[in-house]
Specification:
alpha+beta; three-stranded antiparallel β-sheet; 3 strands; 32% helix
């Protein structure tokens, strides 16, 4: 997973406004929560 993959998911999220984004390719995982327009990343 790259930064550009997350950026694309975040752009999509501007439409649906999900409170969190979870991405995985099976080996790497990204969990981010959206609060007041800012993403906070959680450690795995």
């Amino acid at each position: 997973l790259t930064e550009s993959v997350f950026e694309q998911a975040a752009r999509y999220n501007t439409i649906i406004s999900a409170p969190q984004i979870i991405l995985s390719n099976g080996m790497q995982h990204i969990y981010a929560r959206l609060e007041q327009g800012q993403y906070f990343f959680e450690k795995q």
